[in-house]
Amino acid sequence: MASETTTFSHERWLDFRASFVQHIRCPMQIALTALATVISGALTLAFGQIAVRGVIEPALKLKRLIGTIAFNLDYYANKFPPVGSPAPGSPTEEEWRDIFRKNTCSLLEKLNLIASYRLVRFFFRLPRRYDVARAAAELMGHSNRPVKATHPALAGRETEIKKLLRIET
Asked: Quick check: is 117 in a domain?
């Protein structure tokens, strides 16, 4: 029984030794395999970072900004007539004007940061590029509007902005 175990382990040792010797004969193949693995890993990391930084993060930031714009439109809605109107040039009036201007600039900035917007908009359910640009123009007009509208065309643009940005009310 002991000789069978010795023979069995001796055969295993011979198989291991033959396999090991075969691998030592090809050190160039091992080095090339390792190099190919490292290069493919580095390329995968680089393309992944490009996708995350150039597509996913800007799209998510744009979605967050659209949510912020929806909040600001509703939060500052009572600053306009007939509900209430701050005195022209007051800090309250300047506050909401600055907020809507910042939203406009951020909207255009984030729109231009997204690579291949047409493709990305379907995955993230974003509005069309043209609609976002029009909404930015409407938002700028909204920030520049007079406190008391002298003409109906100068009144609030909230509904048009919400429609363009696909904000549900």
From this structure: yes
Q: Looking at per-residue confidence, does 39 or 30 come out higher?
A: 39
Q: How far apart are CA 124 and CA 115, in angstroms?
A: 13
Question: Rounded CA gap, 147 and 80, in Å?
Answer: 6
Alpha-carbon distance values, 101 to 8, 50, 91, 95, 97 (Å) = 82, 30, 15, 10, 6
Which helix (H) or strand (E) segment is 74 a member of?
helix 57-75
Residue 17 lies in a domain: no
The reply to whether 159 falls in a domain is yes
What whole-number percentage of the chain has pLDDT above 90?
40
User: Is residue 18 in a domain?
Assistant: no
Number of H helices, E strands in the chain: 7, 0
Q: How does pLDDT run across 76-109, given as a tens digit for each residue?
A: 877 665 545 656 666 677 888 899 999 999 999 9
pLDDT at 115: 82
